[in-house]
Design a protein that fits this description.
The protein has about 180 residues and is an alpha/beta fold. It has one domain. The protein is built from four helices and eight strands. It has a six-stranded mixed beta sheet, sandwiched between helices.
């Protein structure tokens, strides 16, 4: 980790590897809870791998009104908050149609440290999670500090993947409501 926390955040964001993405996209008309598994090697401790597990709750998307967007972060650290704010400032066009889960709530959190190499631990976690066939499970590999940037990147990935289907479903619902 460097003394420049902004560099650390962007470095962590560029080194996220989503090994298993949820097979189910973000819900259009309800909240979505992802079960994440984050694997990272401890800095300065080769062969020590941290496995974090938790749940990430994303609220249902809503149509954005032109007023200020408020971002709430619960259960993630200040690095994740600053990274989200930077994303919002640099990618405003991506967030104008729908607002997704701007209340991050990471709960049911646990972590363990195992001795092995990153590839072996990642493979074991990936196989164990895939065997459960949870459509909302994800396995992410990333930097150990700031680790929660990987969780924000997972969320961003899922927003990008879900937006087309969510817009279509919202449009279909508006059309149906207009016919009533």
């Amino acid at each position: 980790m460097s003394k420049d926390r902004n560099y650390d955040r962007w470095y962590a964001a560029r080194h996220v590897n989503i090994l298993l993405a949820p097979t189910h996209r973000l819900e259009t008309f309800g909240d979505t809870i992802f079960n994440y598994h984050m694997v990272s090697e401890l800095e300065d401790y080769p062969g020590k791998i941290r496995v974090r597990t938790g749940r990430l709750q994303a609220h249902k998307p809503a149509v954005i009104v032109p007023d200020a967007i408020k971002i709430e972060v619960e259960g993630l650290g200040p690095e994740a908050r600053e990274y989200i704010e930077n994303l919002m400032n640099s990618h405003k066009d991506c967030f104008r149609i729908l607002r997704y889960g701007y209340h991050f709530k990471s709960d049911s959190f646990s972590e363990q440290i195992v001795t092995d190499n990153l590839a072996n631990v990642s493979d074991r976690v990936l196989k164990a999670v895939a065997a459960k066939r949870d459509p909302f499970a994800a396995v992410v590999q990333g930097e150990d500090d700031p680790w929660d940037i990987a969780i924000v990147e997972l969320w961003r990935h899922e927003v990008e993947r879900s937006v087309g289907g969510n817009i279509k479903e919202l449009g279909d619902q508006l059309w149906k409501d207009g016919l009533k």
